[in-house]
Amino acid sequence: MIPIIDFLNRIKWDPHCNKEDYSIGFLDMKKIKKVKFTDIKFQEGNQFSFFFEDSEIPFHRIKKLWKKNKLIWERKT
Description:
4-stranded antiparallel sheet
């Protein structure tokens, strides 16, 4: 399985990836919360988490990744 950080970096830095096409699902209070990639923020040098609204979310809580609403990555555990 490709690590989620590799997917996130590609979406973030590849000029051929349209960030608007992607959504992530992270574990929030025991259920998956789906948010647009463009709604999350990254802090330079932080390789462990991202920010959504007022919360810092560790990458290990990301469970799903969608492109144009098609599931392309899922962490089973």
